[in-house]
Amino acid sequence: MAEPTTRDTILAAIRQGKPDLLPLPATIGFPPNISAENLVESFMTMVKTNGGQAIRVASLAEARAFLAEDYDLTLPVLSHVEGLDISNFTPAEELRLLDTLHLFVLEGKVGVAENAAVWVDEAAIGIRALPFITLNLSIVLSEKNLVGNMHEAYRLIDTSTGFGTFIAGPSKTADIEQSLVIGAHGSKTLTVFLLP
Amino acid sequence: MNVGLFIPCYVDQFYPNVGIATLRLLESLDVKVIFPMEQTCCGQPMANSGFQRLSAGCDKNFIQNFADCDVVVGPSGSCVLHLKEHLHSSEQPEEAARLRGNVYELCEFLTDVLKVDALPKARFPHRVGLHTSCHGQRGLGLSSMSELVAPKFSKPEHLLRLVDGLDLVPLTHPDECCGFGGTFCVFEEALSSKMGKDRVNDHLRHGAEVITGGDMSCLMQLEGVLRRQKSSVRVMHIAEILTSGN
Amino acid sequence: MNTASPKHAKNAEAFLRDEENTDWHNETLWFVRSKRDRAAQSLPEWEELREQASQIKAHALSKLDDYLIQLEENARKNGIIVHWAANADEHNQIVLDIMRKHKATKIVKSKSMLTEECHLNPFLIKQGIEVIDTDLGERIIQLRNEPPSHIVMPAIHLKKKHIGDLFHLHLGTDAGADDPQYLTEAARIHLRQKFLLADLAITGVNFAIAETGGFVVCTNEGNADLGAHLAKVHIACMGIEKVIPKAEHLGVFLRLLARSATGQAVTTYSSHFRKPAPGQEMHLVLVDNGRTRQLASPDFRNSLKCIRCGACMNTCPVYRRSGGHSYHTAVAGPIGSILAPNIDMKEYADLPFASTLCGSCTNVCPVKIDIHQQLYKWRQVLGEAGVVEPAKKVGMSGMDVLFSRPWLYRFAGRAGRWLMQTFPTLANKASLNPWAIHRDMPKPPEQSFRDWYAQQNKKTNG
Questions:
Q1: Nearest Cβ partner of B134 from C356, C382, C404?
Q2: Do A177 and C296 touch (CB under 8 A)?
Q3: CATH superfamily ID and name for A38-195
Q4: How far apart, in whole angstroms, are the C-alpha atoms of residue B7 and residue B16?
Q5: What is the pTM of this model?
Q6: Which C positions 89-108 lie with beta carbon below 8 A of chain A?
Q7: Which of residues 13-42 of A touch C (CB under 8 A)?
Q8: Is the CB of C416 inside 8 Å of chain B's CB atoms?
Q9: For A104-163, what is each residue's pLDDT tens digit?
Q10: For the domain with range B2-113, which CATH number is right: 3.30.70, 3.40.50, 3.40.10, 1.25.40?
Q11: Per DSSP, what are the bridge partners of residue A107?
Q12: d(Cα B88, Cα B102) in Å, to the nearest integer?
């Protein structure tokens, strides 16, 4: 007889030692503490708390104007947002060459008012490294896609894609004496545009 | 109701006045109290050191002593918690279970059973810091806890607020451990002392003249630090304050 | 008989010799605890949320075999290569074999307490592989050749001055410069090069989801993502207890994790990995290393619910004043003290005693692990197994002899008080009584309560 594999040994040990079946909670999650009319305001406050900036715009053209003001758009810029044509950068095969990217703009699917996390999925991201390797990041999000809390977000997002992530602010660290520093390894800034 | 007075071993030996105050306080509230003379210790020192299995004799003695009592009341949250959680007897399991369910810390007996809402004679015109003992608070639920999202309350504070002239001082860390911790105070001497010192400083910074609480073990720890510092600040068990003016 | 030496007490004493530093450490950690309190108080449903999290974990552990099989099946369908490791050695060998297959010599790692537990770094370095920790705190302690002192804030024991000196030495920053912003920027530049050149990335796993066959990694710095997305090969290492049934359960855990850990509403990045990117290879290593043993113990299996937030450390009055290294184990603090004895009972016999059992850890735990109750239970197990100090044991049997014999107790009490009254300096002599090194003994009274009571009764009954 073949020797049992590690897998079999572990599973057998679990079966031997696990407790009798315990039930899942009757309900998962809670209704949001933020009312529908306060979603935008709460979301914007939390973006700020997270170290980013949130701007309400009427159109993509307005968003573009803000970007032009904040960033030098002659530096390498890549936009994956349809109708926001500011790209001047074509990603090469070689991932390390993405390191020069100055600004990356993509579309968020769902925004969560209680923590300002924005879900971005693989279709919007494209090359997975982009939102992390870019120096500056901007997310365009429709106000219609704001929800109150994470439980609601998980009801809306599609977790069956290859990759997706909640982004809540620019990268940060407090590993040196608990002093908050914005701009650790990921993007140093985050601007979220809220469209009607 | 037959109330058995449980005086923990170290209170018996080192702080008899706390036992006397507890007895007088209960009697002043018309409670008939008996003190079983052969009682010794709850067994906690052994159990907390990993030798709960060696405390059978101790448990047996406790059960024998309090067999005639409807309820047991003791002026120590820590010892009471130990009894509630760990009093066992292989010979008399039902009696042990009955006692586990009927042992009260003094403050909770006053607020929950006697429902004391006035102490007309009590007068203590001093600035007092309340040390909240961990076993009383987190173990017995004598007061709300800073870690939890829950309504605020405190049974000892409710009682202290009934004392005329008493000025309860606020603390920066109202429910930080004093560092006594049973045998921890000896086996982790350096840490235990530092924790005691930090607790004392919180009270001193807020101008307490007296530090009180429901657990004499915590207060012994704080007193040890105060006396080493030659401080004029005293420790008093809450029973002593509630009977002051009597 | 095996005997444990009181390592934690000795380490704590050494830490406490610099009182100013101890106070700073205490206050820094308390600052994080206060941020956690504010975050918790902002959610009225906080306690129920903890309860849900605890129940989901309890359920997942009660069906752990099924969920691991489901996870494996779905992960494989997604194109992830799944491995099983019984212990640290097997885990390390699996990682090494993958590296050899890809001829990888440069790897970047994001924080993984599991790989700390398995001592992966020293193992790989011995094989001539460059291993770079990329979490800032982890990189700092790696340059110092130290283990982490905290699971969320690995370098929390260090002051910025130390880090400034360290970076001056290793990264060429200006001498004497200790501004956190400046130092973080230097680390960013240094590590960016490492990310760009790495052959392979290792990450931990915060949650694995049986239903989707994917896993979630949470960071604030973005280092896990940079590493995993830039390298050709991504190895994610997880303890088998990290699996949860469904993606919707993440809503519960992600609301608790960062709030408990740092007081943030959520980590900056909560990345959901499900399939390797085109041209990339993704591995998932499932590690037991004592977890099935812990699961088989009704008293201790709850500790497997841990989501590694570190809240129990930040609140612990002992941890705050003794530092993470005093626990001499990968996971320090209260949770470490109930996990470590399961791995090596003899080596870590001192840790369940490094606590006053104040219970604050249990109250902050987002998955409601009864940490202080488990510390108490470990003490009983260690007492039973005879791995506590012999002095303690003799003392304890003596105590029962004393307390089960009221006459002896009365005699000893009287004798003790007499002794203390007669020789007060003896009782306060530090070499005889550790209590008295920093504290005074209580003044012994003339008579005990029972003596007084007997006297009163005599008077009344006449």
A1: C356
A2: no
A3: NagB/RpiA/CoA transferase-like (3.40.50.10420)
A4: 9
A5: 0.95
A6: 90
A7: 13-25, 28-30, 33
A8: yes
A9: 999 999 999 999 999 999 999 999 999 999 999 999 999 999 999 999 999 999 988 999
A10: 3.40.50
A11: A140
A12: 14
